[in-house]
Design goal:
With 180 residues, this protein is mostly helical. The chain is built from nine helices and four strands; from the N terminus they run αααααββββαααα. The strands form two sheets. A two-stranded antiparallel ribbon has the order 1-2. A two-stranded antiparallel sheet has the order 3-4. It is elongated, with a radius of gyration of 26 Å.
Amino acid sequence: SWVDSIQNQMRSKDKSGKVYLQNKLRSAEWFVSAIQQREHTMIKVMEEIVNWQREYFLSGDILQIKPMILKNIADLTGVDISTVSRISSNKYAQTPYGNILLKTLFSEGVKDISGEIVSARLIQKAIKDAIDLEDKNKPYTDFQLVNQLAQCGFKLARRTVAKYREILRIPTAQLRKIWK
């Protein structure tokens, strides 16, 4: 076998071959150690994400996603923010509700009128719902959406509503009226 071949080479008097094999063995051990460290860090980060978003993982309801930023998970795991970003970028988690892109579990929080921090996703859903129910002949302007959301308990600036509307790829009121 190849193991016997290497052991024989290590016992031989060929010093250069022996040094070469020792260097390759150290490189292989380092590589295995690096892979194990990466796996350990990834598991640690995933455990904290699942703990933070427990309600979502139990229900599958996207509205249960709590505000969570990279720094939250970095602080809990003791790793750098860039490490959390790398681990969660372009990676999916298999859930009973389908595969979910890990990055979608991260969202900023916004204070509502009572001072409670709610997920930006909840605000975005409220904006989409308001636009879905609007009179298509007189679509809501961003300022009118601010007033609609205030009635739902969300105190937002007009530019925040505009930002979320753009994230949702919903055109301005003028364009919605033209495209009705």
